[in-house]
Amino acid sequence: MQFSGKSVIITGAGKGIGRACARTMAERGAEVIALSRTASDLDSLRAEIGGRSVVVDLADPAATRRAMAQAGTSDFLINSAGINVLESSFDMTEAGYDAVMGINLRAALITCQEFGRARLAAGGGGAIVNITSIAGHRGFAEHLCYAASKAGLEGATRVLAKEFGPHGIRVNAVAPTITLTELAMAAWSDPVKSQPMMVRHPVGRFAEVDDVARTIAAVLSSDMAMVNGAVLSVDGGFLAV
After folding, report:
1. What is the value of pTM for the model shown?
2. Cα gap 46→36, rounded to integer Å
């Protein structure tokens, strides 16, 4: 129960990695404040682990700020909300760009800002983990805006670490490989596309959501008190070879 007495705000907590993070943090003693745009997902999560929830469309900046205010001051923030629009570089649309960048990058910057302001008012301390992707490190077809959003979030993570660090707030990023969420299944369901990626993983598999959630819990823990501004790859060795 390493997080007993602590609380964590998790965006995108209704599904995928975010939901796995909610379960993991609750199992380790934290109160979870779950943010998602789908009320039914939040209802089922609350029935499973307790905690509180806030329904919000993170594509709306004003709504995002209101949701963070409703969530209140917390010890930790996990930015897991993310979407992808599969468009090639030739076919990119303004709508696709706005959707992906609005949720994957702008919303994360807003939640980090609001979390930091609240922590500062409370005397400092706390930690943030932004979930990025190996797509920000390698070029994958039809991931133009997604890659830009994740690479941008990693750059922002370093700035946040520099500016929040003096107040005792650590900010790090975790960059998973293909993780078996609904989003990933849509992007990698074709064996012709997925098999060449699979063989590039030395561990011989893609990640499960719990692989990522447990890593995030470790980064948030006091065991990593000197880790700040880092991007930790959770990729089974993909980027190393």
Report:
1. 0.95
2. 12
β-sheet bridge partners, residue 34: 10, 53
Catalytic-labelled residue, pool 15, 97, 150, 162: 150
Q: Is 193 a catalytic residue?
A: no
* DSSP code of residue 143: B
Task: Give yes or no for a contact between 161 and 172, defined as CB atoms under 8 angstroms apart.
Answer: yes
CA distance 52 to 26: 11
Rounded CA-CA distance 72/52 in Å is 11
Confirm if 34 and 22 have CB atoms less than 8 A apart.
yes
CB atoms within 10 A of CB 201: 17
> What type of residue is 187?
A
Is residue 35 within a helix (H) or strand (E), and if so which, with residue range? strand 31-36
Cα–Cα distance list, 116 to 97, 125, 160, 167, 170 (Å): 27, 9, 9, 9, 10
Closest Cα to residue 212, out of 236, 228, 229, 193? 236
Transcribe 127-140 into DSSP letters.
EEEEE--GGGTS--
pLDDT digits (tens, 9 = 90+) for 143-186: 999 999 999 999 999 999 999 999 999 999 999 998 988 767 77
CA 196 to chain centre: 26
Count other Cβ atoms within 10 Å, centred on residue 141.
9
Catalytic residue among 15, 146, 162, 193: 146
Residues ≥6 apart with Cβ < 8 Å to 46: 34, 52, 53
- What Rg do the C-alpha atoms of the chain give, in angstroms? 17
- The tens digit of pLDDT for each residue in 22-61 reads 999 999 999 999 999 999 999 999 999 999 999 999 999 9
Q: Is 150 among the catalytic positions?
A: yes
